[in-house]
Amino acid sequence: MTGGLWQLVLAVVVFLASHRLTNQPAFRRPAEALLGGKRGFTIAYSILSVLLLAWMIAAYGDAPMVLVWGQQSWMRWLPPLVMPVACVLAVAGLTTPNPFSIGPGAKGYDPNHPGILRLTRHPVLWAAALWAGAHVVPNGDVAALILFVPLLLLALVGPKLLDRKRRRDLGLDEWTRLAALTDEPLAVMPTVLFREIGWPRIFGGLVLYGALLALHQPVIGAWPLP
Q: pTM here?
């Protein structure tokens, strides 16, 4: 189901709808019961998300080129400079216990040593926002806007929506206890932050960045470096 702009729109809409649906208790609770609990649900949704992402990428690659603005040479520097940060955020977010947002869950979370959550309670969403935002600028065509802008908006709105939901679920006192050291300005705790994130996660993020660079040309069809 690729080849035109409407197929790309459909792929993006289905991806966003799946994300919205999985946050609805009326759907999620029966789905968790069917899939053997939260872990089974998370695995199934992760697989579905990868498949839908692959569909979006394929639809984007096959969509016709309708130019909105031309690419300037400086624009090509933005993704290579931003994506290492996005990759570290993604790896740290997906491997750090997190009762607030997307990640491996709350098991093992220590509110006195929140790791990457010191910087943001939503590292995976901010990784997605950086990825989408960095790719909008050098790709000024309609297909790129259809793909990246909705994902950018979702990633920017998501933290506030998730904070509101988690605060309601946890209760104000528990939220205050768990979130006391999270979402702090980077300037006040860089050494503590890097120590708690740990070099393995930072190295893992850089390995992910290298893998994305290597796969960009064969998968996307464009060389990612200026």
A: 0.88
